[in-house]
Amino acid sequence: MQCERFESRLNEVLDARQPLSSAGDLGEHIRTCAPCRELARAYEAMLVGLQQAEMPPEPAWLTPRVVSQVRRPGSSTTLHQPRVLYFPRWATVAVAAAAVLVAGIGLPWFFNRGGGLADNDRPTADPARRQRAPEIAEARRPPRNTEVRSIARPDKRRDAVRPAARTPLATAFLDPTQLKADDLIGSLPGTEWAHDVADGLQPVTKPTVGVINGFLQLWGIGEEGRRS
Amino acid sequence: MSSIGRRLPVAALIACLLSATAVADEDQPTATANHVRFAEWLDADVGLCLEVENLGEEWARFSESRFYQGVVEFPPAAEWLSQHRQGLSLLAGEIERRTGVTPRELATKLLGRQLLFAIWPPSNPQTDKPRALLLAESTDGQLMRRLLERLVAARRLAGRWRGRRTVVAGDSTFSIDVVVPDEEQSEFFITAVGDVAIFANDEALLGEILRRRAAVEPTSLASSPAYLAAAHRLTGGVAAKLFINPRAWDAALEADLKRKPPGSEEAKSQAVIVAAWRAIEYVSGGLQLAPQTAVELAWQWRPDALPEPVREVAASLAGSCQFVDRLPDDALIAFAGHADIRRLIRYGIEHNGPDDRDPRSQFDSILFWALAAGVGPDWGGFLKAASDRPPSRSVDLVVGLQTRPLEAGPQEKPLAETLEPVLHALLSSAVEAVNRQSKVALASIRSTDHDGSRITTVLGLLPDRPEQELAYCVDRLGRLWFGTSAAAIEQASRSSATRTHAGHPLGDPSGLMRVNLAEWRKLAARGPSAVEFLWEGKQLDARSQEREYQTLLAFCRLADRLVVATRVDESSVHVSCTLEANGQGADPK
Questions:
Q1: How far apart are CA B2 and CA A218, in angstroms?
Q2: Alpha carbon separation from B289 to A28, B68, B186 (Å, rounded)
Q3: ipTM over 0.90
Q4: Degrees, nearest 5: CA angle B7-B91-B49
Q5: Please, which residues 127-186 of chain A have a Cβ atom closer than 8 Å to chain B?
Q6: Residue B124 has pLDDT above 70, yes or no
Q7: pLDDT value at residue B47
Q8: How far is CA B421 from CA B231, B298, B416, B454, in A?
Q9: A183 to chain B, minimum CA–CA distance in Å?
Q10: How many C-beta atoms surround the C-beta of residue B12 within 10 A?
């Protein structure tokens, strides 16, 4: 086997969830080619890492929120427009405070609270993971003394069901349960005013973040078609 | 596997940051003196434009800085890095596999010379998407072309390559690859011109850029007055600059306003925002990485076009703050600001309709606002280490307020002078009451004169801190000072205060906050007890206190000073945040 063919063959084997040892041609090539051996190791390590990673549970409020949003009179969100970007309130505050762009990229990135149809909230398509969902949910459930954010807040403005952002792609990299930015920002004086400004500037911030998202996905190069 | 795809851009950024330490050893090509500015290829109707110059070189300098080292070693950052080290290296490897270059090369070579990212708002926000463009001039043309080929090949392999088209611009013909990201349906158009890679999400936009490049238009973003004014506003040496053209977004904001229910609170609030937005001429931002790290943001507006309430708020904040020069350089934290509260109160009274309630039932609030009108417009304060004190009283806090007469007239006294006898009488009564109740002379009050200002000190009033002084002073300029020691107040209120400040980032700022990390280091070096006031009341155990102490030490090593300054005038705001490292005490160890 030649190196040019090795990588695509490796993909075929890994896509079929087969161990490398089951593919004799790969094993033979690995024994003689150090770069391909390193490549195979990297792939394997990545798969192992992904298998060990836990899929977050579907939050209890997700379904009512989605249904409510779809049914809301005059809502611009319909089932036919699943990719509309929304900002959570804290993110829009941050975006406004940093004058639109800098925070538009940075804060949603770092402080995504998974309030909407974010990647973390998607039900897994993997049957094995679905089977393990209750265990995973239990493992990821916050301790009892941890404050669990409720969708309903006393503030009348916040009572409105507000889908959160499908914010930039970095969110999967950070553990949102450890981040308290919303609490911090929400307690600052003038927050409500900042919320109003942030809401008002959404026609600027939303498309900006959407476009940046698109470019980031382009650079993801996306091997979805052949690898997942 | 798609999660890797989603993580990849983040990982690319993080890996680029982390790998930059090694860049310092390399010779980084810099932009040539006659290089074309990308802004000349763009039309002036752009909505947002982000430009980065010499990222590779800037990053190399930044990675040598003490701030960078401090951040890497800062406990929360170090902990995060250690938790994600495996994932980061996996993803860095994945980037290399996909693009053929290391994250370091990606940042310092592909994006290393000149980078521009621009967005044009959609003409119809309901149906259209914004148009966007990414221009990247590489320091290594071959590497850039290789990377693009690999990117297109990967898209082709994933079945998301839509073909190749040609565009004629001037005398040249360009091949454009059309690709689609994994989770997007919108197409991206990619081509290379010399050492410049061009990405756009609109074919017509890409063609327009190529045509503008072939025959430079007389009018472009680079020559637009708003863009020039915005660039001029920033201090020199910024590595990245941001320009927002508000006019390009007007239609989107107004369309959004029309969708709000007429007469609703939401619509009213939005109307003010839209009106304020329409008054803005530009928004400008800048980022400097080295020799000091700084972020700045400025925006300019036409005062006559602002909604009246917004204009009043801006006008009340406009001006320089005289307290800035009263802040000692060696204060741990110093702050000062300017706000004309009286102007705001008058505006509120004049524009609020008559209140139906009986004024006699609102006596307390009326009195409060009346007194508030005598406060300001300047205020300031600082926290300063007191070297001659026991650790439990290791710092002094001083707060100062400028006051003025409640009524106009040359003979009228500032509010502070009016209040001073009242305050003195109240404190005297309190001291007498404490001593009478305890049957011992626990508390005392004394007054001394300094340069015509009387400083009054009270001792023994605080139950848990019998040795704690509380002092106040009204100086000759009508400023009211409160503090935790007479000596600190005396220093602050002296009319011949030494102006030893090392210059402010924005000249005469309207507001300033300065954190002297070098002084914090000195204070912390006295031991944990000198800074335990920071976590007083948190009821931390010894181990947690030690952890807090170590985190504080690490934070103080990041730089020498953190300075946040604002400058507000009738038509603009300029905010800057700077981390200064002067070299003294630079050793982070």
A1: 13
A2: 50, 10, 35
A3: no
A4: 55
A5: 168-170, 172-173
A6: yes
A7: 94
A8: 53, 44, 9, 11
A9: 18
A10: 22
What element of type H or E holds B514? strand B511-516
Q: What is the pLDDT of residue B218?
A: 77
Contact A102 B295 (CB under 8 A): yes
State which H helix or E strand residue A180 sits in: none
Asked if A16 has any chain B CB less than 8 Å from its own CB, the reply is no
What whole-number distance in Å separates Cα of residue A20 and Cα of residue A17? 9
Q: Which amino acid is at B123?
A: S
Among B182, B260, B283, the strongest candidate for a mutation testing the A interface, having the largest count of A CBs within 10 A, is B182
CB contact (8 A) between residue A173 and residue B188: no
Residue type for position B192: A
Residue B213 clears pLDDT 90, i.e. is over it: no
H-helix or E-strand spanning residue B481:
strand B479-483
Q: Do A50 and B3 touch (CB under 8 A)?
A: yes
Instruction: Output the DSSP codes for B308-335.
Output: HHHHHHHHHH-S--GGGGGS-TT-SEEE
- How far is the CA of A176 from the CAs of A95, A120, A142, B368, in angstroms? 18, 10, 11, 43
Q: What does residue B470 show for φ and ψ, rounded to 5 degrees? A: -130, 135
d(CA B456, CA B482): 10
Looking at the complex, report in whole angstroms how far the Cα of residue B317 sits from the nearest Cα belonging to chain A: 16
Model pTM greater than 0.90? no
Dig out the tokens for A210 from the structure. 């959407």
| B96 vs B104: CA distance, rounded Å | 10
pLDDT in tens, B42-67: 999 999 999 998 888 888 888 888 78
With CA atoms as reference, the chain A residue closest to B255 would be A203
pLDDT category, B286, cuts 50, 70, 90? very high
Among A4, A178, A33, A198, CA closest to B83? A178
pLDDT for A18 equals: 74
- Cα–Cα distances in Å, from B389 out to A101, A135, B230? 47, 57, 49
Residue of A nearest to B47 (CA): A204
Contact B186 A203 (CB under 8 A): no
Is-contact B423 B470, C-beta < 8 A?
no
Phi and psi of B380, rounded to 5°?
Answer: -175, 175
Bridge partners, B562 (sequence order): B515, B579
Best B3, B131, B313 residue to mutate vs chain A (most A CBs within 10 Å): B3
Q: Which residues of B touch A46 (CB under 8 A)?
A: 4, 90, 93-94
Q: A5 and chain B: CB distance < 8 Å anywhere?
A: no
CA distances from B461 to B2, B431, B487 (A): 66, 7, 18
